[in-house]
Amino acid sequence: MERRKVGILGATGTVGQRFIQLLDQHPWFEITWVAASDRSAGKRYADAAKWKLDTPMPARIADLVLQPNTPAANTGDVPKIIFAALDSDIAKELEPQFADAGCAVISNSSAFRMTPDVPLVVPEVNADHLPLLTKQAAYTSKSGGYIVTNPNCSAIGLVLALKPLEERFGIESLFVSTMQAVSGAGYPGVPSLDILGNVVPFIKNEEEKLQEEVGKLLGSFNGNGIDMLPAKVSAHCNRVAVIDGHTECVSIKFKKPVTREEILAAWAEFQPLAQHHLPTAPAHPVIFTDAPDRPQPRFDVGAGNGMSTTVGRLRECPLLDWKFVLLSHNTLRGAAGAAVLNAEVLAKMDLLPGKHLHTKTGAGLAENELVNA
Ligand SMILES: NC(=O)C1=CN([C@@H]2O[C@H](COP(=O)(O)OP(=O)(O)OC[C@H]3O[C@@H](n4cnc5c(N)ncnc54)[C@H](OP(=O)(O)O)[C@@H]3O)[C@@H](O)[C@H]2O)C=CC1
Ligand SMILES: N[C@@H](CC(=O)OP(=O)(O)O)C(=O)O
Question: Does the pLDDT value for residue 358 go beyond 90?
């Protein structure tokens, strides 16, 4: 099968490098275009990027030349599928330009996550929100472009654990306290003298994003927009001296009495994408460990190729109903892997740019094939 050509915007950064790692051998997508800041444009990828992953930089990518970062400034072919890993302010300016030029922009940034006509999606949780993209002006104006976003890295791990619980028991309120890895701040990120032997109890805008994104992700698509989940959510976000993997301590109040066995069954049976055979989807999005001292970033961050959330320490909460600890990989499941999985679902729903683009709404496929179990 011929692979679809894709580009990466912000290709030299922490998340951009993860995109390269995940897409280099991808069966459906082929990287043909990379771009970053004006500082990097015109350079070979190998000369512009400080490669920080423990797998080698793919030789073919090393020789790609970084292109200008707007569609207008490009003289050659810009692929119709763009994975974007830009800071929010830059994303705000650049992503709409690519959507207006007819590209599917699969974005990591927070810039448009809460925009009413932009889907904010974790496929196992709310793939049925994706048809919202057909309301965007770029799409309806027949350029066929659009923006789809994935959530904040802490929100992704959290909603994977919450979705099966919300479906079965209903969530009334939620308290979450995070311990977030330094790679979440990009490269070079947090200065070593600030974080070594230390905990920083502040990540700008993080608590606000986590609180509001959970409501949209667990909300429902009403045909025109998203009705937010009305649960109360309170978040504390902390930076800790871990390289990869965000750990979160979660306490929940449910709408009805729930047993430990029912919670464990909800997690174990949560496999909403199992029948779709998506290359990046983990077999088990939520993995429970009953070891008393797990999950831990050092041992569990790679679960499901970095795409599963590991949950553990499930116990009764004297304030709310139940509490547990979860861990997920912030640059894989929390960023690049999430975006690649979004693109795989869009491909399955026939919503990626192609010859049928303007006749498809994605609605039938969302309802019939990608509903969450
Ligand atoms: N790190 C993480 O765990 C997660 C990050 N995110 C989000 O993903 C986005 C990227 O984060 P991250 O990879 O960590 O950031 P980095 O700082 O590591 O990388 C930033 C990238 O943006 C490029 N860039 C900078 N300025 C411009 C510009 N004016 N035009 C085009 N490209 C530019 C840089 O290129 P150059 O090399 O040329 O400077 C680099 O490729 C952010 O919005 C972040 O919040 C989301 C989830 C998790
Ligand atoms: N802010 C997160 C990374 C992230 O996901 O950010 P954003 O919500 O801007 O994508 C962290 O530092 O760990």
Answer: no
- Mean pLDDT estimate for the chain: 94
What domain count does the chain have? 2
Alpha carbon separation from 367 to 55, 103, 163, 370 (Å, rounded): 39, 25, 18, 6
Ligand 2 centroid distance, CA of 335 (Å):
9
* Helix, strand, coil percent content, the chain, rounded in steps of 5: 35, 20, 45
Q: What is the pLDDT of residues 119-171, one digit of tens each?
A: 999 999 999 999 999 999 999 988 999 999 999 999 999 999 999 999 999 99
- Does residue 215 contact residue 229 with C-beta atoms inside 8 Å? yes
Same domain, 37 and 167: no
Q: Which amino acid, one-letter code, is at 12?
A: T
Ligand 1 midpoint to CA 152 (Å): 13
Instruction: Return the closest-CA partner of residue 320 out of 223, 252, 272, 233.
Output: 252
Atom 9, ligand 2: residue with shortest CA distance: 110
My answer on whether 287 and 188 are in the same domain is yes
Mean pLDDT, range 90-101, rounded to an integer = 98
Q: Distance (Å, rounded) from C-alpha 32 to C-alpha 60?
A: 10
Task: Provide the residue range defining the domain that includes 95.
Answer: 4-151+335-368
Of 14, 88, 90, 152, best ligand 2 pocket probe by most atoms within 8 Å of the beta carbon = 152
Here the CATH number for the domain that contains residue 89 is: 3.40.50.720
ipTM given for this complex: 0.97
Percent of the chain beyond pLDDT 90? 94
Look at residue 66 and give its three-state secondary structure.
coil
**Which whole number is the average pLDDT over 260-269?**
98
